[in-house]
Amino acid sequence: MNLQVSRRCDYAIRAAVKLAVAAGEALSAADLASTMLIPAAYMEKVLSALSRAGLVTGQRGPGGGYRLTRSPADISLRDVIEAAEGPLAMNVCVTGGGSCEREQSCGVHSVWATAQRQLIALLEGATLDVLAREEVARGNAAQAARLVQIART
């Protein structure tokens, strides 16, 4: 069993954090891809998923690019993960709607349910403003400044 985020999810998180660091400046998919060292075509797909979820908006043309649609303080890591991957579920039995016939008799259900609640609480508490500050504090300030400079040109 492998409980790790997908590459698509990782890229979505990193792109969202970079947009939060840019503080409202529009960043192009190409600039984000270049900074993150990933293919530009794939970055477009990631940004499209974030846009469909209402987390980013894109504008074509000069001065265009992508921006967050809300304040970074109002976008959680859960929002970004679910935009990239769909609803979080530790196991099928915690998705609700009677999706597991053994839910009432299973001794492990309470563990999955607790893990689900704690994971969601952790991810909802991690907002893009906090993650952006952490990104800058960890020495990525030069990269962040470069992205903002690119966006302004």
| Spatial gap, N to C terminus | 46 Å
Helix count, DSSP H or I runs of 4 or more residues: 6
> What is the number of beta strands?
2
* Regions with little confidence, pLDDT below 50 for 5+ residues: none
Beta-strand residue fraction:
5-15%
Give the overall average pLDDT: 85
- Class inferred from helices and paired strands: mainly alpha
Overall geometry comes to elongated
Largest sheet data: 2 strands, antiparallel
Strand arrangement, major sheet: 1-2
Topology pattern, helix = H, strand = E: HHHEEHHH
Kindly describe this structure.
The longest helix is centred in the last third of the chain and has 25 residues, at 128-152. A two-stranded antiparallel ribbon has the order 1-2. The chain is elongated and about 60 Å long. The mean pLDDT is 85. It has helices spanning 7-21, 29-36, 40-52, 77-85, 109-125, 128-152; strands at 56-59, 65-68. Helix 1 crosses helix 3. A hairpin with a 5-residue loop joins strand 1 and strand 2. The protein has 6 helices and 2 strands, in the order αααββααα. It is mainly alpha-helical and 153 residues long.
Question: Characteristics of this structure?
Answer:
mainly alpha, two-stranded antiparallel sheet, 57% helix, 6 helices, 153 residues
Question: In terms of topology, how is this protein built?
Answer:
Blueprint: H1 7-21, H2 29-36, H3 40-52, E1 56-59, E2 65-68, H4 77-85, H5 109-125, H6 128-152
Antiparallel strand pairs: 1-2
What is the compact description of this entry?
The protein has 153 residues and is mainly alpha-helical. It has helices spanning 7-21, 29-36, 40-52, 77-85, 109-125, 128-152, and strands at 56-59, 65-68.
